[in-house]
Amino acid sequence: VIVSLPSQNSAKIVKWKVEEGTIVYEGRVLLLYDLKSNNGTAELKKLKATEVGTVRKLLAKEGELVDGGAPLLELERGCSHPTVMNDLCAECGADLRRESAINAEASVPMVHSVPDLKVSEEQAQILGKADEERLLKDRKLVLLVDLDQTLIHTTNDNIPNNLRDVYHFQLYGPRSPWYHTRLRPGTQQFLSKVSLQYELHICTFGARNYAHMIAHFLDPDGKFFSHRILSRDECFNPNSKMANLKALFPCGDEMVCIIDDREDVWNFAPNLIHVKPYHFFQHTGDINAPPGLA
């Protein structure tokens, strides 16, 4: 559809507020223009979009004097909803629960802790490529790190409170169960050294609160893992960690390594380094192992 100057008088294009490829929603300002009135004075006006669409071509240049009713831009109606958060399009604001917008392009959740934020396959490829270029520039690969029985061992049994190097914590308030965690010996030195060559990500079947608590013990300043924490709450499959790889790394996992005490949850992936399970507390295995895989 062609958007034209909504006046019979000539006008001067002052400033475009969009560019080709911009997704616009109803009411968004497209451009500013000076409208010449009959008495010769100029009045600054705003041209706003009357529908959702994508700007395909600008037909006038800034500073150009155009006639009344002249075509200004080509607008492709509708929105493919390339970025979605909680069923709302982040581009046009449409509520996809009300629309029959099951055809929304956004289907790839690329942020570890925000699975409701999704982007289109095309956008995921662009973001994934940018991540790869950044890693290559920094001369780093990616290392996905498991927690339970890989870097730590946790129990919720009653234990003495004076055990050396054991963290004691509650996750859900003062009436909730106590957890007790010990770091695998050498973990801090390992993280310090490996972080020089790898961008570190946590990938665990522990719940979100648990994963972030353990991350705080391992990395209180956030210099190793930052926000890159994938917990059970964000896993697509309760028995496998493989399902999230495609979303996190849409261009492929050739630059990704994994360390875990379990091979089965990664479908015995060739880029997995299988480590000996760390066992500190007697009578306790992996408290966060998926049902049936414990």
UniProtKB/TrEMBL annotation:
Which terms in the GO cellular component ontology are assigned?
A: nucleus
A GO molecular-function descriptor: RNA polymerase II CTD heptapeptide repeat phosphatase activity
Output the superkingdom of the source species.
Answer: Eukaryota
Q: Which InterPro entries match?
A: Fcp1, FCP1_dom, FCP1_euk, HAD-like_sf, HAD_sf, Single_hybrid_motif
Gene3D superfamilies per record: 2.40.50.100, HAD superfamily/HAD-like (3.40.50.1000)
Q: Report the enzyme's class at the first EC level.
A: hydrolase
Q: What is its EC number?
A: 3.1.3.16
Matching NCBIfam families: FCP1_euk (TIGR02250)
Q: Spell out the PANTHER family in the cross-references.
A: RNA POLYMERASE II CTD PHOSPHATASE (PTHR23081), RNA POLYMERASE II SUBUNIT A C-TERMINAL DOMAIN PHOSPHATASE (PTHR23081:SF36)
Protein name, please? RNA polymerase II subunit A C-terminal domain phosphatase
Question: Which organism is this entry from?
Answer: Cuerna arida
